[in-house]
Amino acid sequence: MSWLVYLAFGTAFGFVLSRSGAADYDVVQEMFLFESFQLYGIMAVTVGVTAPGLSWLKRRGRTATGAVLKVSPKPRHPGNLLGGAIFGIGWSITGMCPGPIFVNVGEGKLYALGALAGALVGAALFSTLYERLVPALRQPALKIGTGDG
Amino acid sequence: MLLLHQLEPWHWAVAGAAIGAITLLLLWVTNQRLGISTGLENLCALAIHPPYLRRGEITGSHRWRLPFLGGLVLGGFLSAETSGGWQPFWDLGVFDAVVGLGPAGKLAWMFAGGLLIGFGTRMAGGCTSGHGIFGIANLERASLESTLCFLATGVLTSALVYGFGALG
């Protein structure tokens, strides 16, 4: 698949995130302070649309080009909980989850550059500390080599 | 109202349906599972090469995750450009009203939060998109548990920063 297809999907997703409020500091705070239904409504409708569609696609078993559909579930481990808890603090502090960091940079919100730099350094730290975190967190075993990611 | 040109946000049902449609189309057309935070690792892998970033899941996904992330930036740019014109700005809404830091302070605040986002999402193996949307829609227990955790600590953190009712 051409990289342009992925650029187009990203652009559409970014545009919707921008106009939905998911990439807006105030709307995110209103969600966490229970003062607006907006983002809860979006999450509920998104899952409500995606779940049956996904179930149907999996039963069908083929992509648009006829390839075998692959949906790999994410591994379950204690990092899901601890990492999720750490991420939630960052989401509240910045008013951004990972997608909206990129969207906000595109919108021209200059402070989002700070969030982007922080997220990259945070991911780099996790990447370099990974082997030391594995025993403590029972993270999934490291697989180096071929992959279909 | 959004900080971007004081736009009214789309109705949540419209936005949710659009995000769901994009998620399903991405899978149906390209056979890819929606997920943003793994892309942070793809970006890191351009600069550093620890074993964790040499695994196939990363080296094999540059070709789609990197243009997808570029698209997110482009989508934000187009959203601004088509709604009053793109221009850089520092407005941070309720943060300006309550916390009130200048540009350098905002960058530092955002960098600190970003660190937790980058480290936390990678430890969790996903974020709002990979766990919160795709994982929950695929009825994955790890995703439901992780999502409940990040929503809970988000609520607690905002309560600490603003106190309940501060926006009222």
Structure notes:
The complex is a heterodimer of chains A (about 150) and B (about 170). Chain A has about 150 residues and is mainly α. Chain A has helices at about 5-20, 25-30, 40-60, 80-95, 100-105, 110-135. Helix content of chain A is about 70%, strand content about 0%. The two termini of chain A are about 15 Å apart. Chain B has eight helices and no strands. Chain B has about 170 residues and is mostly helical. The two termini of chain B are about 15 Å apart. Helix content of chain B is about 65%, strand content about 0%. The interface between A and B is large, with 127 and 139 residues.
List the helices and strands and how they pair.
The complex is a heterodimer of chains A (149) and B (168).
Chain A: H1 3-20, H2 25-32, H3 38-60, H4 79-94, H5 98-107, H6 112-137
Chain B: H1 12-30, H2 38-45, H3 56-59, H4 62-81, H5 94-98, H6 103-124, H7 128-137, H8 141-162
Helix pairs in contact in B: 2-4, 7-8
Model regions low in confidence, pLDDT < 50 over at least 5 residues of chain B: none
Backbone structural class of chain B: mainly alpha
Please provide the count of β strands of chain A: 0
SS-based class of chain A: mainly alpha
* Tally of contiguous helical segments of chain A: 6
Count of helical stretches of chain B:
8
User: How would you describe the shape of chain A?
Assistant: globular
Low-pLDDT segments of chain A: 144-149
The gyration radius over C-alpha positions of chain A equals 18 Å
What is the percentage of strand-forming residues of chain A? under 5%
How much is the radius of gyration of chain B in Å?
Answer: 18 Å
What is the count of β-strands of chain B?
0
Global morphology of chain B? globular
The string of secondary-structure elements of chain A, in order, is HHHHHH
Strand content of chain B: under 5%
Largest interface (CB < 8 Å):
A-B, 127 and 139 residues
Mean pLDDT score of chain B: 96
Which sequence of SSEs, written as H and E, runs from N to C of chain B? HHHHHHHH
Helix content of chain B: 55-70%
Largest sheet of chain A: none
